[in-house]
Design a protein that fits this description.
The protein is mainly α and 72 residues long. It has one domain. The protein has helices spanning 3-23, 29-37, 45-49, 52-55. It is rod-shaped.
Length: 72
């Protein structure tokens, strides 16, 4: 493969990575419940700090919590 084609491929890859990053980003685990599964659009810092649902990671809401699951 010629050097020019390799550089062209790298440039296209960098453009694609930049473009994708504008729309798709990883959400930190501690924020994912808030980001995807909360009805409230935005919380104050105090509400977020004391949110029982976030702190318990919504245990038992969507799936049984590990403590309540039957033994294997």
């Amino acid at each position: 493969m010629s050097e020019q084609k390799v550089q062209g491929s790298r440039s296209k890859l960098k453009v694609w990575q930049w473009f994708r990053a504008q729309f798709v980003q990883e959400v930190p685990e501690e924020s994912s419940l808030c980001e995807f599964e909360c009805r409230k659009g935005q919380c104050t810092l105090d509400e977020w700090k004391s949110c029982a649902r976030r702190l318990s990671k919504a245990a038992g809401e969507l799936m049984p919590s590990p403590r309540s699951a039957p033994p294997r």
